[in-house]
Amino acid sequence: MRLDKFLVACAVGSRTEVKNLLKAGRVTVNGKKEKSAKLQINEERDEIRFDGQKLDYEEFVYYMMNKPQGVISATEDTKHRTVLDLLDDLARTKEVFPVGRLDIDTHGLLLLTNDGKLAHALLSPKRHVEKTYLAQVEGIMTQEDVETFAKGIPLKDFTCQPAKLEIVSVDPEKNQSLVHVTIAEGKFHQVKRMVAYCGKEVVDLQRLTMGTLILDEKLKRGEWRRLTKEELETLLASIT
Prior knowledge:
The chain is α+β, with helices and mostly antiparallel strands. It is built from seven helices and 13 strands.
């Protein structure tokens, strides 16, 4: 691996910034100052230091985002802002992608990573990874709806797997309900279509969980952070 690519991957700086840092003599390779960005290094064997601090190569990164509405779950788009546009330059150098998708008008938990194996495992239908949503509904959800969800709702193009509907609250005066919906699938507009099958309409949808991951309440919409060591270890353990 080229030295400049390694330094960028370790979040030392952008490609341009890294070249300037090398010229300034702030990087050492195996104890010797190195100014060549093109130097080929072995990220596992060579000792790279920046301002005296040893750098450890990080092949995979994992970010939790509180996706806002109006942004699409994609790496690029000609019409809309994408979730990658919300990351800083250094995070984007990791070439991450969203694991699964949230509709443009859905907000909440989204995992971004460059770990393709993990993403495949989380999205595999065979693993039945559960996702929980908080839905604000126009209409009063009932116990009958709870039972309908549990049986598996037959939509036009497929029959949903049994799902859990939990009624959080109802407001008869406003004709609104607040519910938790837990599904192990992720078909297009699935939660909205399931609620519509019951004769009601989702007016706001937020994803709260995906597998073992729980949306950090401290993250404002549009904000993101790295997964903690505990979150990552628990997530990886859940798919092995």
